[in-house]
Automatic annotation (TrEMBL):
InterPro entries: SAM-dependent_MTases_sf
Keyword annotations from UniProtKB, A to Z: Methyltransferase, Transferase
GO-annotated molecular function: methyltransferase activity
Listed name of the protein: Methyltransferase family protein
Organism per entry: Singulisphaera acidiphila (strain ATCC BAA-1392 / DSM 18658 / VKM B-2454 / MOB10)
Xref: SUPFAM superfamilies: S-adenosyl-L-methionine-dependent methyltransferases
Residue segments, region Disordered: 1-22
Any GO BP: methylation
Record flagged with keyword Ribonucleoprotein: no
Length: 328
């Protein structure tokens, strides 16, 4: 997901009054301010992030009343830039590991963006469709894409649903997952990748972390909070793994550039094919420095993933069978 650049902010120790709005939606305890006054350079707006003291869930405040302007054509672009094919190949391998070959099976890609993963899955025998709130902007080609679960109608239940860096964008991830249960086959799986708010890179770079992506990322998940999210939504988590290589490496390099030199994520935008503004010399510096930092970041990115503190995490979950589903 495309982030905005944030100015530095310091953790705030003071708790917010434990009202319904400020309680953790997973643990139902009062959240505390983690970062204050994080400025989005493109708009001049400021936001804060509250954090649950129990599960570590982060929550963006305030939430804009209209998020549509943050999802324009420039946002979608070529989401993975040069690494797109590698990313889709790795993700398909992950799906195959958990579900086997795709021939004759169905897949729902929630938040499918421009549809690259759906197209790649189709070459492996998967059928299915995508959900994308801005699909007229994002999608081209002959893919089947709808704007919401409700528009799926009476389709056959899906064997697999993927959320590739999508859950953090939803204003009600609990409600979405609960509703999704009705569209999954009895033995269907959900695969969900999110930035890891508990990663070493997130903790080291603070409000400069690339993957905060305010205000589009409404929630910021840790391993504990993503497991809790699935639990309260009626799922059982089978596995949580760490690391999506390109996310983790650029998470380190661009975040360190943000922290040391400010700027507008010029390096990230350049390698992902998105427009950027600013003086040409500044852009050249950020790209050159970003490439060097990316090479140096390969070691810490590998290490944090191996030790369960990678910049991204992937959860594998399946619906908990109720008595009604067992006898269906």
């Amino acid at each position: 997901m495309v982030p905005q650049t944030m100015s530095r902010a310091q953790p705030g120790p003071s708790p917010i009054a434990p009202t319904d709005e400020s309680d953790c939606p997973l643990c139902h305890v009062g959240m505390r301010v983690r970062f204050r006054d994080i400025a989005v350079e493109e708009t001049g707006e400021t936001f804060r992030i509250d954090e649950c003291p129990q599960c570590g869930l982060g929550r963006t405040r305030p939430i804009p009343t209209d998020l549509a302007p943050y999802y324009d054509a420039a946002y979608y672009g070529k989401r993975h830039g040069l690494t797109g094919r590698i990313c889709n190949r790795r993700r398909l391998g992950f799906v195959r590991h958990w579900l086997g070959p795709g021939m004759g099976r169905s897949l729902l890609d929630f938040g499918c963006g421009e549809g690259d993963f759906l197209r790649a899955a189709r070459t492996q025998g998967w059928t299915g469709c995508g959900i994308e709130r801005s699909w007229p902007t994002a999608i081209s080609g002959d893919l089947t894409v709808v704007a919401s679960l409700e528009e799926l109608g009476g389709r056959k239940p899906f064997d697999c649903t993927t959320f590739w860096h999508v859950l953090e964008h939803l204003d009600d991830p609990i409600g979405t997952l609960k509703e999704l249960r009705g569209y999954l086959a009895p033995d269907g799986l959900v695969l969900a990748a999110v930035p890891n708010f508990g990663s070493w890179q997130a903790r080291a770079t603070g409000a400069s972390w690339l993957h905060l992506d305010l205000p589009r990322h409404l929630f910021h998940f840790t391993a504990a909070s993503i497991a809790k999210l699935f639990e309260v939504s009626g799922f059982r988590v089978d596995d949580i793994s760490f690391g999506e290589w390109e996310y983790d490496v650029i998470g380190w390099s661009q975040s360190l550039l943000n922290r040391g030199f400010g700027g507008r994520n010029e390096f990230f935008k350049t390698v992902s094919g998105r427009p950027s503004s600013g003086p040409r010399l500044r852009k050249m510096f950020h790209v050159t420095a970003g490439l060097g930092l990316s090479l140096l970041s390969a070691v810490p990115a590998w290490g944090e993933s191996r030790l369960g503190r990678g910049g991204t995490l992937i959860a594998v979950a399946r619906p908990v069978k109720t008595r009604a589903s067992v006898h269906a």
